[in-house]
Amino acid sequence: MPNRLASATSPYLLQHADNPVDWWEWGPEAFEEARRRNVPVIVSVGYAACHWCHVMAHESFEDEATAALMNERFVNIKVDREERPDVDAVYMQATTALTGNGGWPMTVVVDHDGAPFFAGTYFPDQPRHGQPAFTQVLTALAQAWSDRGEDVRTTAGRVAEHLAKQVELPSYPLDAERLTAAVARLAGDFDPMAGGFGDAPKFPPTMVLEFLRRVADAGVLPAEQEQRARHMLARTTAAMAGGGIYDQLGGGFARYAVDRGWVVPHFEKMLYDNAQLIGLCARLGTEQGTRVATETADFLLRELRTAEGGFASSLDADSLVEPGGESKEGAFYAWTPAQLVDALGEERGRWAAELFAVTEAGTFDASAGGERSDRRQEGTSTLQLRHAPTDPRDVRRLAEVRARLLDARGQRPRPARDDKVVAAWNGLAISGLCDLGRRTGRPEYVAAARAAAELLERVHLVPAAVEGVEGVRLLRVSREGVAGPHAGVLEDYGCVASGFLALAQATADPRWLRHATDLIDAAVAGFAAPDGGFHDTHADAEALIARPRDPGDNASPSGFSSLVHALLEAHALTGEGRYRDVAEAALATAAVLVDKAPRFAGWTLAAATAALDGPLEVAVVGPPGDARDALESRALALPGAVVVAAAGPVPGIALLQGRQPVDGHPAAYVCRGQVCERPVTDPDLVAVVRTAQ
What we know:
The structure is a single chain. Strand 10 (about 320) and strand 11 form a beta hairpin. This protein is of the alpha+beta class and about 700 residues long. It is globular, with a radius of gyration of 26 Å. Helix content is about 50%, strand content about 10%.
């Protein structure tokens, strides 16, 4: 019989609707029930594409005996971290404070006020790898609540008090000296052999790479540091694009690699990763970068696009090895030499095995490092393409092989899709698709970005009056065109505003600029902190045991850094100095993070580079055609530049005001801080104007 989650909109919660656990959704009713019964509350947090969430669900939440213990001694709440990032953030902070580690699935046990007194991540069904069984943990916690309730509640209160402390951040300017120091610290963490930073596991450091791309061309680094930044960028992007973390057949990146060399990924494909990597790879301006960006965009449109025009959150890591068989992580993507021969024939199969590094031993055992053995696909390999062929005949052969293997793979059981639309991640997708579409002259990508923006406009944007002043609010998730009840957090406002600004630049349609500035104004009013930074939740959001505030980037931009980017771009397009002032004040509060942990401040550093260097504002005006396209293409190559192209002035876009073609020819106006050089009609002179500042 289905439990309460049967009425949820989250696909992750729906995965647990048939559990024997008497799950509740997050809300006051669950805590009222815990008070009535005088039992503690389990808060279980995960997401649909999480492999170990599935493992724990199968081992424990589907087990009748474990469920009976949970139902008798606890009230149980299931949370989708992607739907409620505020709840996730608070309890992840508690988990790392109590255990020194974090991750999903996350298991937190709290009192009736939501204060945590125990936290952990995955617990096995039997004692294993030095971990107690989940039932042993539950029994001990229930006994402690019963026998030492006052002590437990005192501990919970202390943890809650610690989490609620708000530290005002000191402010320092993010100047060229700090950017140079950040490059030096990143170089100290850089892996010269495999690319990326640190050791396994390795996540795509997309935002750090964008910072390195911008700062290398900003003219603020010593020559040695500039060269080092370029090397770290090129080495890492090439290693990821050639590794098993990249889907060499269908495009798109997995969430992270479990090994140092990018060979074996955790196979879930997340929208936020791929949306960012489309933009980064497109902006590289290299043949490989453009190919990978295009293949990844095609993957988004083919496999993540929803019927309403938005983009689904993720593809699962797990799938069936064969119809009706066992579910394994990576089963959809991994190959044996024999499978290649079956799909391609003897000669081409052997050629493909050598090219893609598919071996009889397989790459999983050799590269999985500390991963638990039950997740490996023994004897199978991920596909790598470390050295793409250059001979025209082999290039054609590779294209044919990829097409045939993609078709053969399509006959396998597919991974499940989490089809909820998350506002922030769709904002990232809009930005990435606009970047790619403009740089490759492919209007279909800009059209896809527009369709996603129209879904957000239609479903996620809601009017809201604050103290009699009209404004907007943003809802975080929707599914099948229906918005969920959860309010947007800061990352939603920042990423969607940036997406709308990218679309305004790509289309010269002031409607998107208007929506973006409405969101920015709402965010500045509702999320601001006294020191110039920002909280992650709105001032009138549901009160949790602490108000989340984390300026550090993770796998996607923080709300802080995404809003700073939007503020700088809005200033460039509108000329309104208030946006620049707020951005600079916010950047100053991030100096401590930049100094201590630049790997978690990549998007902030990219914004600081743009602020230090401008950002450049470029208006390209003239009739559509090759001449205007050439000017626009050259302008887009300027790192961090805000570029808008139109036939002439457009009401509502200040950067285009007064801009006219020169002697009937398309012209580029290159400006910084609304101070412009003479317009140029020769694309080669756009760069000259840039370097002459």
